[in-house]
Write a structure and sequence with these properties.
There is one protein chain. This protein is an alpha/beta fold. The chain has three domains: about 240 residues, P-loop containing nucleotide triphosphate hydrolases (Rossmann fold, 3-Layer(aba) Sandwich), CATH 3.40.50.300; about 180 residues, no CATH class; about 180 residues, no CATH class. Helices cover about 40% and strands about 20% of the residues. A hairpin with a 2-residue loop joins β1 and β2. The structure holds adenosine-5'-diphosphate and magnesium ion. The site of adenosine-5'-diphosphate has 12 residues, from β1, β2 and α1.
């Protein structure tokens, strides 16, 4: 091996390798891909590396290109030791200082020629207009001005490789590295590519290093390096260029969010079937969640409305039994029952904070209207002296609250039953109803365990219907009439007692003290405040359970997304490798995958909310008229829409996070390796 006369080495080589080794572990044994390689390359040189397959040429190029790190020795490029760079630093180096050209082109199949060329600029955060004009200028330079909008599949090999060269030039890098760029080309195209690469050195003053095993290209080079078995065996320098003007490095900004989303979107549309499937999984999960929570809150709002329709929140209901009772659990009698007597009413009237006290009871009756019979439970309206208490009167659906002794209110459903189908319930207003009282029991929220039949005969009453209420299945008697009937239920030889009382307190703050005072007297009390609390508590349990079912559906959908994304990462190794080779940072790659997951999740969320709302409204429409619900059965508050969208997007992004980080962590050389 004859040593060449020492060439004049310029003061600052562009690339300097010092004793570089690269070992791979494969199947338990060490492969020495490079074994102590040392050389300097000055700026502007057109270098050809020749050698047999497996000799370490690609490894050498990868180390110079910052695609991989040496096991030993140093690679210094443009005065910087690549060893000292972080992975983001290496990405920036690949983005700004080197352009890579591969044997198999490695263009992204979903992007046009122009977009492929502009990819390094996109990763450098260059604005769209500038990217486009620069990409087109470069395509013109490689003779493909008319192919800007072709996809790689529509190009010949020679054209594809010229697009790849244009991409390598996008960031105007001082170094171009090409790994067997003619390996997949016919000899004419190969010749053209080599000429093109040579011009990048001789016209532009870039440092161009081309790996090949084609001896024909050796005469074109300024210098030929021969590599075999991981070692530099010959270094032929034919020309040392004048120190050329080096192209200035590209300034980098962050990748624009919009550009990332556009890329993510194009990746999704390229595999639209799969995107739709995963999106559908999310949509179904979100729909279930929106539907269940919407139904739960609709029902709750309806029940709460029904309860508040029963009277003001300043109400305390009193029943005879001792201890404490809730509306859903009749008071359990502890010790002897203390009856409510007229004296009790007098005593409660004297408690501070009490605004009014009246009987709370229900009459079970048979009612007759024309030839129709029905049973009606009549509650008592409050006495007229308390009518000015806000919301003490039931909510009217039609007519008015009459002031006469015989005037009554009926629920719309009863009125409908009495007038029969084909007539509006309100046609019953002003008509007479014949009512026979059968029994008396406690009113709402007053225990209500004892039912007493009358002890005297009560003649049928003729009553006038003056108004309709929305509350389900009840009627209201005028207070004086209702009170006048109570003596008819007293057994002979006993004093007057009542099944329950309603106490109205002066304000909300008095509810608890008054209830406590009444309990001290030995009675049990229930307040609407407590009732509402109990209802809200039980509904929040129901809603949580229903929401959880939707949530499980969503988690399953999320797992699906995770699996699909993991598959996508495997399938798109090549694409990830290309992105990394042209300078994508870890976070660019992970953001790209997360954007895809986010787009699918958000779109699935939108569809899911629409689906859930649609089904909810259908259920609402179907059930609204068959139940006594006051309001809608399904509600879709803005927060629920937000929750649906957030969950759809969130689950998808979380499920995509692991595959995305896996993609981001891939080593570019591994990702690009043909297997
Ligand atoms: P060339 O490009 O000259 O054909 P390479 O640089 O690709 O050679 O490979 C040099 C040696 O290192 C070969 O024996 C090859 O099998 C081995 N090699 C390259 N890359 C890897 C890798 N990622 N893992 C294990 N062995 C590798
Ligand atoms: Mg190779």
């Amino acid at each position: 091996m004859s040593k060449n006369p020492a060439p004049p080495i310029p003061s600052d080589p562009v690339i300097s390798l010092q004793d570089v080794e690269k070992r791979y572990h494969r199947g338990g044994e060490d492969v020495h891909a490079l074994n102590g390689v040392t050389f300097d390359i000055p700026a502007g040189q057109f270098v050809v590396i020749l050698g047999p397959s497996g000799g370490g040429k690609s490894t050498l190029l990868h180390l110079m290109g910052g695609m991989d790190r040496p096991s030993h020795g140093s690679v210094v490029v443009l005065g910087r030791n690549l060893e000292s760079l972080t992975s983001d630093g290496l990405a920036a180096y690949r983005r700004r200082d080197v352009g890579f050209v591969f044997q198999s082109f490695h263009l992204l199949p979903g992007l046009t020629a122009e977009e492929n060329v502009a990819l390094p600029l996109l990763l450098a955060g260059t604005p769209l207009k500038e990217r486009q004009s620069r990409a087109n200028a470069l395509l013109a330079r490689v003779g493909l001005a008319d192919r800007a909008h072709h996809k790689p599949g529509q190009l010949s090999g020679g054209q594809a490789q010229r697009v790849a060269v244009a991409r390598a030039l996008a960031a105007d890098p001082p170094i171009i590295l090409a790994d067997e760029p003619t390996g997949n080309l016919d000899s004419k195209s190969g010749q053209e590519i080599i000429e093109l690469l040579r011009s990048l050195a001789h016209q532009d003053g870039r440092t161009v290093i081309v790996v090949t095993h084609n001896e024909e290209f050796a005469p074109l080079a300024d210098r030929v390096l021969r590599v075999r078995d991981g070692q530099l065996i010959k270094d032929d320098v034919k020309r040392v260029p004048e120190s050329p003007e080096r192209p200035g490095p590209l300034s980098t900004r962050h990748v624009s969010f919009f550009a990332l989303v556009r890329m993510a979107w194009s990746a999704i549309t390229r595999r639209i079937g799969r995107g739709i499937l995963t999106g559908l999984g999310i949509a179904i999960g979100v729909a279930a969640m929106v539907l269940f929570i919407g139904l739960g809150s609709g029902l709750e709002a309806g029940v709460v409305k029904n309860v508040t329709a029963l009277g003001p929140l300043t109400t305390v209901n009193v029943s005879p039994s001792g201890g404490h009772s809730s509306p859903f659990q009749p008071a359990v009698s502890q010790g002897p029952v203390k009856p409510i007597t007229p004296a009790t009413i007098q005593a409660i009237r004297k408690i501070p904070g009490v605004r009014g006290v009246y009987l709370n009871l229900t009459y079970f009756t048979n009612a007759r209207f024309q030839n129709r019979n029905t049973t009606i439970d009549f509650l008592l309206l409050p006495p007229p002296s308390l009518w000015n208490v806000p919301s003490i009167l039931p909510t009217l659906a039609a007519g008015r609250v009459g002031s006469g002794d015989q005037d009554i209110l009926l629920s719309k459903t009863i009125a409908q039953a009495l007038v029969g189908p084909g007539h509006a319930p309100r046609t019953i207003l002003g008509r007479h109803l014949t009512v026979t009282v059968q029994a008396m029991t406690a009113g709402l929220f007053s225990g209500g365990q004892s039912i007493s039949p009358p002890t005297k005969r009560i003649p049928p009453l003729t009553l006038t219907i003056t108004g309709l209420v929305s509350t389900a299945g009840v009627g209201y008697l005028a207070y004086p009439l209702g009170a006048r009937l109570t003596p008819d239920f007293v057994p002979p030889g006993q004093g007057q007692t009542y099944p329950g009382l309603t106490v109205i307190t002066a304000n909300l703050n008095q509810v608890t003290p008054v209830a406590n005072a009444i309990q001290k007297m030995g009675y049990s009390t229930t307040t609407l405040q407590q009732a509402l609390g109990t209802i809200e508590k039980s509904f929040s349990v129901i809603e949580t359970a229903l929401g959880a079912i939707g949530g499980i559906a969503l988690v399953v959908a999320g797992l699906m997304i995770g699996v699909v994304m993991s598959m996508a990462v495997l399938e798109r190794r090549r694409e990830i490798g290309v992105l990394k080779a042209v300078g994508a940072r870890r976070r660019d790659v992970s953001r790209l995958f997360l954007s895809e997951a986010g787009i699918i999740g958000f779109t699935g969320g939108v569809v899911g909310v629409l689906l859930g709302a649609g089904v909810g409204h259908i259920i609402d429409f179907a059930l609204r008229h068959t139940t006594a619900q006051l309001g809608p059965i399904f509600v879709l508050p803005v927060w629920l829409i937000g929750l649906g969208l957030a969950f759809g997007t969130g689950v998808s992004v979380i499920a995509g996070a692991i595959p995305a980080s896996h993609a981001a962590g891939l080593n570019p050389v591994d990702a690009l390796r043909d297997e």
